[in-house]
Specification:
By secondary structure, the protein is mainly beta. It has one domain: CheA-289, Domain 4 (OB fold (Dihydrolipoamide Acetyltransferase, E2P)). It has helices at 2-9, 65-68, 141-150; strands spanning 11-18, 21-26, 30-34, 49-55, 58-64, 81-87, 90-96, 98-105, 110-111, 125-131, 134-139. The strands form two sheets. A six-stranded mixed sheet has the order 8-1-2-11-10-9. It is globular, with a radius of gyration of 16 Å.
């Protein structure tokens, strides 16, 4: 019985890398993970919006998390992935340097960022997780998508 209670409070996150940092996103928001996609550039969009792709008949906006976080752009390689997130009726592709693994976390594994700073620009960060000596920044994908839609 206790094992089931622990399983209910545990959540799974897809862990991925952007630069030398590791990030995580709720696996329930991930629709699919793709290798390199053929992106069509859309004029007058911010530089971190790479463009759109036709993914199985659906037009999906693709964003570079590197550029969004102010990191220099790099050449895509065999490790580069586009994670397709689905939130309500919105679909967004996010280009990351690599996808590492799926991690299972409990609330006790996650530190709130409000203890570090109350900067409103960090609203899209859920917290920092400690996993096997590594730190994984957990992203609030809904907030990131909502922020894009408002611009």
């Amino acid at each position: 019985m206790e094992k089931k209670l622990l399983d209910k409070e545990a959540k799974q996150f897809v862990a991925f890398r952007v630069g030398d940092q590791e990030y995580g996103a709720d696996i329930h928001k991930v629709s699919i993970i793709e290798k390199t996609l053929n992106i069509a550039r859309v004029p007058t969009t911010p530089n971190y919006i790479k463009g759109v792709v036709n993914l199985r008949g659906e037009i999906v906006t693709v964003m570079s998390l590197r550029l969004k976080f102010g990191l220099p752009e790099i050449e895509e390689d065999d490790e580069t992935r586009t994670i397709i997130f689905r939130f309500n009726d919105v679909v967004l592709g996010i280009i990351v340097d690599s996808v590492d693994e799926v991690v299972t976390l409990r609330e006790s594994d996650i530190e709130s960022v409000t203890q570090i700073t109350n900067d409103r620009s960090l609203d899209y960060i859920l917290g920092i997780a400690k996993v096997d000596g590594r730190l994984i920044t957990l992203l609030n994908i809904e907030k990131l998508i909502t922020e894009l839609l408002e611009k």
